[in-house]
Design a protein that fits this description.
Number of strands: 5
Shape: elongated
Structural class: alpha+beta
Order of helices and strands: EEHEEHHEH
Helix content: 25-40%
Distance between the termini: 81 Å
Strand order of the largest sheet: 4-3-5
Oligomer: single chain
């Protein structure tokens, strides 16, 4: 499959990507990722290995589109957990002082 990553054309195949990533240790995934074989890799790491370009030269979206078209399972950014409403500074200070006691 022909795809363009960082303004350069690449002829990628599923087997070629599997071969390129063989023996590459996955980095910690904190953003978008792709499952290759039984391992989960960050998209930027995969892009760097298969294109031999610096990670700053391409976007994760370009690699995401290419990997999806090749049939790999891609995962987006983790869903943010809804923030729980905490105590206001006044409520926090009051809780730290404790409740008044009856004399």
């Amino acid at each position: 499959m022909r795809c363009v990553i960082a303004r350069f054309p690449f002829e990628l195949t599923r087997s070629g990507v599997l071969e390129s990533m063989r023996g590459v240790k996955p980095e910690e995934v904190i953003g978008e990722s792709v499952i290759i074989g039984r391992r989960t890799y960050p998209l930027k790491q995969v892009g760097q290995v298969i294109t031999r370009q610096d990670r700053r030269d391409f976007s994760a979206g370009e690699v995401l589109r290419a990997m999806t078209r090749l049939g790999f399972t891609c995962r987006g950014l983790p869903q943010a957990v809804a923030p729980t409403r905490g105590l206001s500074p006044l409520q926090n200070a009051s809780a730290m002082l404790g409740a008044p006691t009856a004399v």
